[in-house]
Fold this sequence. Notes:
Layout: E1 2-10, H1 27-38, E2 47-48, E3 57-67, H2 73-83, E4 88-96, E5 106-116, E6 130-131, H3 138-148, E7 150-153, E8 169-180, E9 183-190, H4 197-209, H5 218-224, E10 239-246
Parallel strand pairs: 3-10, 5-6
Antiparallel strand pairs: 1-3, 1-4, 2-3, 5-9, 5-10, 7-8, 8-9
Helix pairs in contact: 3-4
Amino acid sequence: MGRIKCVISYDGTNFSGYQIQPNGRTVQEEIEKALGKMHKGKLVRVVASGRTDAGVHAKGQVIHFDTDIQMPEANWKKALNALLPDDVQVTQTVKVHDTFHSRYDVREKEYRYFVLNAEDNDVFQRHFCWRNRGEIDVEAMQKACALLEGRHDFSSFCSAKTDLQGDKIRTIYQATCHREGDMIVFSFKGSGFLYNMVRILVGTLLEIGKGKRSAGSIPEVIAAEDRKEAGETAPPQGLFLWNVTYRDDQ
């Protein structure tokens, strides 16, 4: 048996999320279906760095699976892409040690969120950003981003629907936002993220950008440990799991 690590990209528009569920098309289901064909109907379970919700995209999701098929690393990419639908693509495959774990060995994850700050919608971007009209003060949001960095209890930025049993302490290594034309790009790099955390962070930061709350209010929101103290949850289509890095650069 050998273990294969894959980096995958997917357009989450027509998926009910990454993880297999009874009703609804999922990314995991499509990958396991492709692997099943390669393994003559045998179920091959894949493990991902984490779940993404319905409508959320990935540019650098990482999965691993075990296989008894012997073939060159590069051939795995070609074989899987030949069997996967157009909205899922394997971008990299590599053989790894059987101790590698795509979820438990994560050192850092980066999520990006795209906001189209324009009066008119862009039909070609509608599945990949959140259109938000009106003036947005990027500089104020940048100040607020700096206050999010560090190790905190992010309960205020976690959906009440979470099934998490443990604590909600996470570390954000870097939080930034900048403007590229009409697009405002948010980037969050951290040790891990809670359910809907990035989308709530973006919703809160946009309230700051629109003058509805001050940048200096971030520490108070964090200290409250209460979801009601943070802003709205931004919609899923603007969110991308951008990159996952591992210990020892696995």
